[in-house]
# Entry
Amino acid sequence: MPDIARLSINLATVRERWTMAEALEGCARHGIPAVAPWRDQIAAMGLKAASRRVRELGLKVSGVCRGGMFPAATPEGIAEANADNLRALEEAVELDAACLVLVVGGLPDGSRDLAGARAMVEDGIAALLEQALKAAMPLAIEPLHPMYAADRACVNTMAHALDICDRLGAGVGVACDVYHVWWDPALEAGIRRAGMDRLLAFHICDWLKTTSHLLLDRGMMGDGVIDIPLIRSWVEGEGFDGFHEVEIFSKDNWWKRDPDEVLATCIERHRTVC
Amino acid sequence: MPDIARLSINLATVRERWTMAEALEGCARHGIPAVAPWRDQIAAMGLKAASRRVRELGLKVSGVCRGGMFPAATPEGIAEANADNLRALEEAVELDAACLVLVVGGLPDGSRDLAGARAMVEDGIAALLEQALKAAMPLAIEPLHPMYAADRACVNTMAHALDICDRLGAGVGVACDVYHVWWDPALEAGIRRAGMDRLLAFHICDWLKTTSHLLLDRGMMGDGVIDIPLIRSWVEGEGFDGFHEVEIFSKDNWWKRDPDEVLATCIERHRTVC
# Structure
């Protein structure tokens, strides 16, 4: 079972009750070596202050959440998304993140053109890639669960993400979040196809058999049905040696609890069931 | 755009306010040529009475919902599921249904063994197939949306369903429900691979961009983001000439409305946006 040295906390997990500054202190206090902040958290704290505090506390950054959201209904919308992604890249660089996570976006308002949205995603990543390569910041496409295809991410399988990676070349890989991909009968093959060089992040939480909300009812590791050790064995079998990043959106349960209890539970579950 | 002669109503669409008898009358009154009942509706009306009324009204049955739910935690549970599937088969035969739809089941209680559940599904279908072939009743595996992988169906893509069909041979095909598969980048290829002989049912409704409930918030055709004409063109491009079966679970909207209004809306939307 994994050691705390491999644990990272995605700061969404404690976002309802802690500021980013409090969350950084909290993780350091619990001996958790890494974090993954969201951009609104970074903005609220201030990029420079956030970056300074991360370094002072000796924390690593397993990823910045998130770039992406490429498709738009107008050329202006697309240009805006591209500009915003360049800012996300700068933030990831300033924080010395392992990668910039890309949640690629869904269908533009009023559109049913899924193939068109997917083409916009690929164009958007291609546009960002040049700067990302210069900055040596890996871009991690995160395939999201198919239930988010319309509103959040129209890339929903490892295979699709890797098709995009194949076409774009070096500098782009994938983030493997067990919540999004656990159901996929082609997951093991996808992880093998990604290989060490393209496995840029590994996110954990659990799928609750009775899920009450499409976005905000993720489970703590061990409370659901995902065989996390199995998926971890596939990822690490490829040589992945990055962090196991816990990312839990849970409005009626974990977000309501004392964040110190949440972190203690993450540490315990990571050690015992992951 | 399609003609009403191709329309079928899955009776779940009007189940909250009409009995099966009322629903059969209602469909006939609206000039809808086909229906697809659920087994609890059939049981409530009585199989013989239901079958008689369907014939009297000149209705076709585009499918019976549903067989399946194969995985279980114990051998007794599996035997029970197999016995129940034989009863489902008899009902489909008595109703002269175009197929028995299989919602294959998810993980047994307490299990995280997805591969094991999938093996149980295949064993269960194989066990049912012998009788189904004798009765000349096609079995239609319905890949369900991946958000149901844990609790309802661990077969979630056309490709996976067709892998099972390939292994089991004649007598097994697929039900293509746009709600479950619209997001799949491999959908067109899957439909082509299925081919006319294995495309046994085509179900329609819509995915609402803002979906409030994992099970009971399906949209009316035209209210969501699915490009139904595109998917229909793929299915009919293979030669499928069966019904377009409307299946809408919608506890806060369509289930609350007057079923006559619901049927009138189905007819109008089928004609104009499908």
